[in-house]
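Ops channel
N.P.: pipeline sanity check, posting one input/output pair.
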């Protein structure tokens, strides 16, 4: 099969969260399966060495209306792996800045351009994909284009798969996006793309994709309900027969404690000594008391409401006051939350360290050096950090939602299959309970080690996800022809 992925994030070139890791891991695994895989993504200003990427198409006219001077872009190419090419859209005005999701007035147009340009590259290259796999709201209009404007072109039989990585971000933009993409006006209707007087990109993708997937089986069920549907559950229910949850995997090239070059000492399930060195290194680096016996709880996260970290402040303070834990956080986002964690660090300088901003090496060091990893998410489509934690012998403490519920097996005293601590309610009380469970487990070093090792043995591979996606592509193709 010829499969085209379209994504706003592709690790290592661009990453704002798990989406970059997920698209990179998936396309690499798909390329291993002897299919022709291409990825289209913007060439952001932050991409190192971008002017050295070979030019594939010097000037491509994209079928958009509006300012003719902005309709042209250049396409550069580089390889994700030997078997998988990435096609980068170079357009200084839209993508020249370093931000992936800037708050710009033309954010909708910028995303719409990515969708249309991806189709125009295929037509220009005479490379007609069997399936186009789009990711999240930025690419949500691709299935709409395939069902309407592009129907009479060589792309008329191309099937589409939309993966929802996060339903909260839907991309609601002005109605003028329709004429910009030469899309028909009848799409401006509540049963189509219309939403609060604008155009909802993700809704368009959900209604028009041949198949819709999301990144865990539990999230696939949750988004059918008003509690998790962010206003789109009604439309997702309409597509229930074409909806599937496929778990993300771990990219071992990037996240493997045996080979990770960014951590103090490599380690494995059989040789855990290196993990102790990683803990000490992290404590020293962050000026914490280098105490090997206090359980160190780590967090690497976007500081958004989704992640539930506001609920942790009260319970953390209790255990910090009792001198029972250390806590490390790397994140960025909500300023009030940053300040609250900054205050916590000032209050407990030897027990708490916080860092704000994006720091990939520190993210790896926290995964490697912590004893526990806390993810109290209000919702979590999949979550990659708990998977990385399992691989790094860092026992996850998670709320039972979405992919967290699908990947972490709850500990109770004496349990044999457990891989982490799991709690149910999205409130401080439940988190306090989970932390006390973690302390109880940690106090029994034999039981802690057993949970740790069980987690390290888990296999969440992109190979198995790729097989599920291939089966999904085949079904989509059958439906399209
Ligand atoms: P989400 O995509 O919702 O943010 P995931 O758990 O799927 O959550 O993925 C988050 C990814 O982003 C992980 O690879 C994590 O290490 C990384 N990450 C999040 N915040 C930071 C940060 N401040 N610095 C470095 N990496 C980060
Ligand atoms: C989103 C989700 C996260 C998921 C990631 C990759 O950002 O919030 O749960 O792991 O996408 O699919």
């Amino acid at each position: 099969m010829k499969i085209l992925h379209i994504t706003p994030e592709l690790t290592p070139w661009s990453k704002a969260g798990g989406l970059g890791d997920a698209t990179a891991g998936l396309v690499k695994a798909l390329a291993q399966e002897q299919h022709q895989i291409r990825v289209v993504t913007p060439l952001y200003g932050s991409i190192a060495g971008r002017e050295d990427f070979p030019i594939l198409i010097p000037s491509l006219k994209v079928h958009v209306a509006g300012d003719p001077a902005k309709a042209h872009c250049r396409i550069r190419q580089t390889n994700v792996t030997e078997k998988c090419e990435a096609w980068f859209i170079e357009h200084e005005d839209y993508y020249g800045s370093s931000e992936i999701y800037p708050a710009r007035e033309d954010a909708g147009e910028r995303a719409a351009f990515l969708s249309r340009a991806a189709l125009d590259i295929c037509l220009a290259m005479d490379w007609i994909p069997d399936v186009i796999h789009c990711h999240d709201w930025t690419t949500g209009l691709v299935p709409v284009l395939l069902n309407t404007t592009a129907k009479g072109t060589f792309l008329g039989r191309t099937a589409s798969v939309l993966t929802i990585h996060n339903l909260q971000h839907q991309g609601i933009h002005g109605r003028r996006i329709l004429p910009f993409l030469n899309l028909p006006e009848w799409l401006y209707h509540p049963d189509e793309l219309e939403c609060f007087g604008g155009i909802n990109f993700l809704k368009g993708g959900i209604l028009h994709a041949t198949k819709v997937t999301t990144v865990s089986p539990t999230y696939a069920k949750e988004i059918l309900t008003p509690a998790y549907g962010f206003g789109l559950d009604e439309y997702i229910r309409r597509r229930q027969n074409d909806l599937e949850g496929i778990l993300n995997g771990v990219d071992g090239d990037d996240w493997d404690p045996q080979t990770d070059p960014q951590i103090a000492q490599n380690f494995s399930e059989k040789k855990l000594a290196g993990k102790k060195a990683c803990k000490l290194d992290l404590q020293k680096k962050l000026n914490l008391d280098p105490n090997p016996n206090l359980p160190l709880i780590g967090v690497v996260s976007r500081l958004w409401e989704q992640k539930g970290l506001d609920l942790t402040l009260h319970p953390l303070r209790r255990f910090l006051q009792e001198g029972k834990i250390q806590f490390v956080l790397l994140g960025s986002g909500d300023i009030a939350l940053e300040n609250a964690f900054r205050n916590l660090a000032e209050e407990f300088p030897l027990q708490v360290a916080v860092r704000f901003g994006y720091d990939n090496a520190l993210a790896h060091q926290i995964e490697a050096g912590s004893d526990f990893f806390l993810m109290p998410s209000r919702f979590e489509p999949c979550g990659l950090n708990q998977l990385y934690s399992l691989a790094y012998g860092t026992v996850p403490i998670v709320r039972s939602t979405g992919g967290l519920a699908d990947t972490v097996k709850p500990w109770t005293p004496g349990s044999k299959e457990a891989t982490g601590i799991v709690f149910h309610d999205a409130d401080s009380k439940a988190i306090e309970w989970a932390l006390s469970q973690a302390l109880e487990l940690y106090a029994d070093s034999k039981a802690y080690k057993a949970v740790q090792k069980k987690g390290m043995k888990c296999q969440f591979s992109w190979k198995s996800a790729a097989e599920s996606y291939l089966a999904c592509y085949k079904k989509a193709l059958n439906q399209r022809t």
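N.P.: looks fine end to end. DSSP finds 18 helices and 18 strands in the chain.
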